[in-house]
Amino acid sequence: MESTPFLQIVLQRHQFDCAVACLAMLLGRDYEKTLLAFGNLDPLVKGVQIRDVKRAAKRLGQPLTLHRKVDLEQDTGVLSLKF
Length: 83
Hints:
Blueprint: H1 18-27, H2 31-36, H3 50-59
């Protein structure tokens, strides 16, 4: 059985900052540094879109790739749902 890498839980601190918490957790980064990577956007007040998450990840040196199909056994990342 393959071992699973340790995942440090990063909690949301505000109603709309799920993207900040998810990206920090995925990349193993500090919440505050991840928040700064969103630049002049305000994810704490109105949230962000997936393109903003991708830009923030790139600024943190970890570009994300968008997949339309997901392999639940192999893929890791941030799940974005359209509603």
